[in-house]
Amino acid sequence: MQDHLNSPRDRMSKVFSTSLRCRLPVLLFFFQGALLVLFALFVTYDEHTDAASQPPDADPSANQLYAIFSLFQDIQLMLLVGLGLLLAFMKGYGISAVAYNFLMANFATQWALIVQGFVYHYHQGKIHLGLYNILTAEFAAVTVLISAGAILGHTSSLQLLLMALCEVPLYVACEWLTVSHFRVVDIGGTITLHIFACYFGLGVSLALYRPGLQEGHPKAVPSYLSDFLSLVGTIILWVFWPSFIAALIRQGDAQHRAVLHTWITLSASALTSFATSSLLDKKGKLTLGHLQNATLAGGVAIGAVADMAITPTGAFAMGILSALACILGFQYMTPFLASKIRLQDHCGIHNLHGLPGIIGAMGGIAAILLIPDENYGLQLYQVFPPRAPPLDNTTMAEAASTGQELGRTASRQALYQVAGLGSSFIISLAGGFLTGLVLRLPFLGQPPDDLCFDDSLYFKIPRLTEALHAGPSHEDLQMPLKDHDYQLQDSTVQMSANL
After folding, report:
1. d(CA 188, CA 174)
2. pLDDT at position 467
3. Mean pLDDT across the chain, nearest whole number?
4. What is the pTM of this model?
5. CA 77 to mean position of chain CA atoms
6. Tens of pLDDT along 395-409?
7. How far is CA 312 from the centre of its chain?
8. Which helix (H) or strand (E) holds 374?
9. How far is Cα 270 from Cα 206, in angstroms, rounded to an integer?
């Protein structure tokens, strides 16, 4: 027994405990200090926020704020509320899911402001900062939040932040390659965001594989309340998803078309999800996991073709196909991947972002091939401004189209679409795996198997009665959530008769 207690593994666990009292504050304070210095040295206002650069008779309504602020707020709500609640489906990990989502969103957005600033907005020795920069930085943060879904519950906050630190620069580099170099048409980020985020997260998950979680975990299951909150998060995402797609599209008919197509695909996905989920159950009952994910699958797929003239019928078909792929992925592909290649995907990001993303990418290639060669350049200029801002100081409206700039035919552009898809897949998967190897370092506070998916490991969790200030007469409300007691006493929560 003494030898066992003095084993190297036991001594290592004592040195590298799960307590983050020093490690997390040091990382966050160092990060904030470094960004403070970078902001002081390199960041200034852009032309929309600098009064000195505006002519005296400038029209205030022409400021960029009025064009994108409402979309910016919609995306804020999606990221911090919708996505946070969507991830809160595990009965003992809801607080961690929402809090870590909030933490990573801010961390990744700040980091992306600097990384994207040097790549896209740096001239005359300064990063020129405006609301547009924050908007595109939040798109970069979305990739981190999606990727975290594959490893949420068995990683520490320190690991998640270091993943964000590695992922954001790789995302920006991959986006530059696919959008600015290959000139891939992907206005809603299906290829550059959803596919990248999905396979980066799966790459990290492969590197962090834990045999002890192969058969699941008793705490990695939903409860009545957690499933309800997750479904509310899904509905919030569903409502505001058109803003996410249309935010970076030039105002006019293209943006109008993108909103229209996004709503059609989301609505088709919703009805298809209800029908398919009921069909797959022997008693016709609905599976909440299907509804929480597949109803959003159309929004993932439509990003690559949202502003194209694909007709409402095309958008409708894409919504149906993406929802079917998502549900069938949960039903059949997830168990297969878990057993055959040891892929642990706790939030099912492959089914919501990977499979619908591939369908959207293929739909984009098909749509481009249907555009006549002689009209290709003109249509691209009218419909497909680059998703990433130009490298010089010109506006997106002044940027030349892919067809006009490179003289590409539709068939040639389709090949570039394939190249962009392949690049995003390979770079994200390889980058995620290498990042996962870094995250295996023992001092990063990764929880042991028995403490995974447990809020109380990193948070002070009060009893429900304390939170509600319930008196002694409300004994039926006492549901102990402190420490590691998450056993569900009954299939339904018995409420007091005197409430």
Report:
1. 15
2. 47
3. 83
4. 0.85
5. 13
6. 333 333 334 445 678
7. 26
8. helix 373-383
9. 31
